[in-house]
Design goal:
The chain is mainly beta and 65 residues long. The protein has no helices and 5 strands.
């Protein structure tokens, strides 16, 4: 089964999304950035986890967590 998750970065801050293995917590891909004032759909399957992080002014580089 596949689940779609829409991430909307609509408050002026970018959002980083990382797909993670639910058993190990290791990143499977990413992080992928959703730029401010945009939205993006992510597809997850096989028990995959998503880590969604709103990036603040002091941390503009993509995070690996």
């Amino acid at each position: 089964m596949t689940t779609s998750v829409v991430v909307k970065a609509n408050h002026g801050w970018p959002v980083d999304v990382t797909r993670k293995d639910p058993k190990t917590g290791e990143a499977l891909a990413g992080p992928e950035r959703v730029e401010p004032n945009t939205e993006r759909t992510f597809y997850v399957h096989g028990g995959m986890d998503l880590h969604v992080h709103e990036v603040q002014e002091y941390a503009k580089a993509p995070s690996a967590s």
